[in-house]
Amino acid sequence: MQPxxxxxxxxxxxxxxxxxxxxxxxxxxxRVPLVCFCIVETHHPDRVxxxxxxxxxxxxxxxxxxxxxxIDLRGKVEKNWREExxxxxxxxxxxxxxxxxxxP
Length: 104
Hints:
Layout: H1 19-22, E1 33-36, E2 39-42, H2 81-84, H3 86-93
Antiparallel strand pairs: 1-2
Domain Aminotransferase-like plant mobile: 2-84
Pfam families: PMD (PF10536)
GO biological process, one term: meristem maintenance
């Protein structure tokens, strides 16, 4: 396969998505933790910028906290996950400042 045989921006066409699907479209490129109860995963859109119609450069290094994948929920019925993951929630709250910027 040659580079000219690859469709680098497969999602650039307008698919007629409803407004609620494209509202705050710039948030799609926010490099932030995604938090769901006891699960935290970092969203790394800077690794797939072409899917967002942006030029792909060298992505930043991924900081990985393996403690997040060693969570044992046994005996943690009263665990306050909002408090436990407060730092990650703060980063999410600042998502407007964590957008990936690249030329189209």
